[in-house]
Every structure is written in structure tokens, then in C-alpha cells.
UniProtKB/TrEMBL annotation:
It comes from the Eukaryota. It is found in: Membrane. Transmembrane segments: none annotated. It is a single-pass type I membrane protein. Residues 1-18 form the signal peptide. This is Leucine-rich repeat-containing N-terminal plant-type domain-containing protein. GO terms for cellular component: membrane. The keyword Transport does not apply.
Length: 140
């Protein structure tokens, strides 16, 4: 009976306190991913992912293109398709290939959905644990 009361109190406390934001490891991984795109000569010309900034009080679960589990605040969905808002006539498939590293997504333990199309990404994505990996584009 005592354990039951303790669990009820814990659940109530968590609900009252709410979620204080995303996990620091995931927030830093998102910022590192953005920085890797901006460090490229082409990528630095266009502002991308403006809500992704390094303010300490900034909750990455509220950033554009990021969805988190409402209970534990792990990133579960990244919608990173067409980051630069290209239209198909702006593509030059011989240039602007960004090398996508597996390590870009290893910090997201609960990631279930990843959309990467229309970015000219090259490289390999380890899809272990990801339920939806959207790569449906000749411009991946």
C-alpha cells in the first residue's frame, strides 16, 4: 500500500512539475547538426532552423521540425526535409552534397521518425530503432 501511495505521489509530482525541456545531450546534438550544415560555404549563405539556438533556457522540444515524447521529452521525430526550402529548379546535383554522418543521430535514443529528403545529403544513416525513415527524393 505504501508503494502505491509513493507511485501516485511521484506521478502527481511529475505532472505538476511538467517537462523542463529536452535532454541536454539531444539539444547539443541538434545544435551540432545545424552547425555542420552552416559551416559549409553554401550552407552559410542561407539562414536555417532559426529557432535552434544555444540559449540555456531554450527547450529543443519547441524548436521547428522537432517533436518530443510528451512524457519524457526525448526527441522522437525530426522533420529535416528541404531545410533550405529549395524548389526543384534550384538543385544542382553535382554540387552541395553534404556528408551526413551516422554520428549525427546516435544521441537520439528514442528517435522513431526521420525525414531527410530534398537536401542533397550524402552518406549513411543507421536506421536501427527508427520506424519511419523518409528518404523519398532523388535529391537526398
Amino acid at each position: 500500500m505504501e508503494l502505491k501511495r509513493l507511485l501516485i505521489c511521484l506521478i502527481l509530482w511529475v505532472q505538476i512539475q511538467g517537462n523542463n525541456g529536452c535532454f541536454e545531450e539531444e539539444r547539443l546534438a541538434l545544435l551540432q547538426f545545424k552547425a555542420s550544415l552552416e559551416s559549409d560555404e553554401y550552407g552559410s549563405k542561407f539562414p536555417i532552423l532559426l529557432s535552434w539556438n544555444d540559449e540555456p533556457e531554450n527547450n529543443c522540444c519547441e524548436w521547428e521540425r522537432v517533436s518530443c515524447n510528451s512524457t519524457v521529452a526525448h526527441v522522437i521525430h525530426l522533420s529535416l526535409d528541404n531545410i533550405w526550402n529549395y524548389n526543384e529548379t534550384e538543385y544542382n546535383l553535382d554540387q552541395n552534397i553534404y556528408d551526413l554522418k551516422v554520428s549525427s543521430f546516435q544521441h537520439f535514443k528514442e528517435l522513431r521518425s526521420l525525414h531527410l529528403s530534398l537536401n542533397n545529403f550524402g552518406g549513411f544513416v543507421d536506421k536501427e530503432g527508427i520506424l519511419v525513415l523518409y528518404l523519398n527524393s532523388p535529391y537526398l
